[in-house]
Amino acid sequence: MSVLQTLQDRSNNTCELCTGTKDLKQYTIPPSLNENVANDILVCHVCLDQIEENVDMNPNHWRCLNDSMWSEHIAVQIMAWRMLQRIRNEGWPKDLLDMMYLDDDALAIARATGEHEDDSNKIIHRDVNGVVLESGDAVVLIKDLKVKGSSLVAKQGTAVRNIRLDHENDKYIEGKVGAQHIVIITDYVKKL
């Protein structure tokens, strides 16, 4: 059974965050690179657009997290925590966050994207042109790069898809070049 089918079965074909039923998609929670049931949730297009910040945040939509934050699935709990953190200045999300419990491993994953940080403390990754990079973006190399510890040379013009950010250093991103997972310095990439 595929990951998508498993997610559909466990959620009864509803969004695991708001219980919507239209245009459901599988979403892999960053910084995970692997699609699997432990790292993925099923979300509707309304939730997905706000998660990926394609549209303005609608805090009232997220009142649904009052129920979904108690899900038995860790991935759903992590995403609920992150969305509550994004809108914590609304007031009511702070009460839900105070009630919410995540074990240490889940909390570490939840904090990996920095949702809980004030904007002034967040590490912001930028490409060579100053464009902000996000987890999951695609970039292109702007020069040939030798990969330390191997004979691989990543050629200029190589596209690196589904990048992950280093949450301790704003100059480092991770991605796959060919079959090899490497760390790339942001000064040598341009966002696609």
What's the helical proportion of residues?
25-40%
Secondary-structure content class = alpha+beta
Uncertain spans, ≥5 residues at pLDDT below 50?
none
The N- to C-terminal Cα distance equals 33 Å
Q: What is the N-to-C order of secondary-structure elements (H for helix, E for strand)?
A: HEEHHHHHEEEEEEEEEE
> Number of helix segments?
6
Approximate shape: globular
Arithmetic mean of pLDDT: 88
Task: Please tell me about this protein's structure.
The structure is a single chain. With 192 residues, the protein is an alpha+beta fold. Helix content is 26%, strand content 20%. It contains six helices and twelve strands. Strands 8-5-12 form a three-stranded antiparallel beta sheet, with no helix packed on it. Strands 9-10-11 form a three-stranded antiparallel beta sheet, with no helix packed on it. Strand 6 (145-146) and strand 7 (153-154) form a beta hairpin. Helix 4 (74-86) packs across helix 6 (104-111). The protein is globular, with a radius of gyration of 18 Å. The two termini are 33 Å apart. The model has no long low-confidence stretch (mean pLDDT 88).
What is this structure's SSE topology?
Elements: H1 3-11, E1 25-28, E2 40-43, H2 45-51, H3 65-68, H4 74-86, H5 92-99, H6 104-111, E3 125-126, E4 132-133, E5 139-141, E6 145-146, E7 153-154, E8 159-160, E9 164-165, E10 172-177, E11 180-185, E12 189-191
Antiparallel strand pairs: 1-2, 3-4, 5-8, 5-12, 6-7, 9-10, 10-11
Helix pairs in contact: 4-6
